[in-house]
Amino acid sequence: MGRFKPFSTEKVAEKAILVGVDRGVGSWTCEDSLAELERLAQTDGAEVVFTLTQRLDKPVPKTFIGKGKVEELVGYVRRLDADVVIFDDELTPSQQSNLEREVGEPVKIIDRTALILDIFGEHARTHEGRLQVQLAQLQYVLPRLRGMWSHLVGEQTRGGIGGRFGQGESQLEVDRRLVRGRISVLKKELQELEKRRGVQSKARWDSGIYRVALVGYTNAGKSTLLNQLTGAGVYAKDELFATLDPTTRSFDLAEGRKITLTDTVGFIQKLPTTLVEAFKSTLSEVRAADLLLLVVDASDPRRQDELDAVVSILSDIGAEGIRRLIVLNKADLLTQDELRSIAAAYPEAVMISARDGKGIDSLLYRIGREASQGDETLTVLVPYEKGLLLKMVHERCQVMREQYVDGGLLATVKASERMRLTLDPYRVADSGDEAG
To answer: What is the pTM of this model?
Structure first.
């Protein structure tokens, strides 16, 4: 034996107590919402040791839960040696401050919004993603800077859940004026990135490429589906918010038409408004799509509630008018009876398993059908010197027949409205010309 005892360097999970208020309203039960909160806490590295609930018509202004429940909470914190208390709804700065005073140091009091922001801070990989998360975190922390969030702004050694706010940003150690200044800088930088994204999006529009975006509840399997369709190699894991940054890949449909497919950040019920605002530039990829694939975890009993939450957020970001197709994923986890029942409940949806590839051919057929909506059949003669246009004809159109003649490529194609505008100057009369 040496002089020093060996010790473990393994990260110890923080002990968390969850608190929820059952108001008897909304499609999500208190139990279901707290089950999701537990998954969020586990994603952020916590061990949930107890769950406390109270039935109230409305939250108590001072401490969110009643005085007796606060005393009960304090007792459980002491007995279970809890490190953090997580509320399922957003707390006001004063409620948070009062609860911290009642529970006492060093226990942290955070809410669902803070937890989600913390997870985003851990999972953001790109420069833009980190900027968006920092902005949302700073906007959330700003009204809480009056000492009540000292564990976030002054004690860097504590870490853990809620401890990654404003990573690397010493501005949080000073006053509101500097935080507001940092918020302003982040907003300007994100606006520049949004302009750049807008230029790229316009270029894709001008090119005539059909754009598809994957949207859905977190952990519905969007990244797995992107990988299945395009071989993108995107990180996909069975955890909430495994990927935050949008990924766009292109691939060819069987008919030869090239399309782009974009994976986007997963949605969740009670998604913080600060996050929706901060991620506007990323979510612009959704608004610019021609078709939205609403990916749903068919094996989740809360699938309709999750779908409703996604549809609500799409409305919030101005994407409610875009054509959409429901994709029921994880069919491999269902029994035959469940498959029949769910298929009957969603007759227009496509049932797939992104993991093993079942149903993918049916999905591609439906995407192709959507992509060809409004297509018109026309015959064009494209000169050989128009190399880029020749390439676009083969990539952006469905070529019905083609012939190489003296003047160039004589082709009869099915073309979208965007491609028809491009090809109009080269249009020629043909007996096969008809609307299609």
So the answer is: 0.76
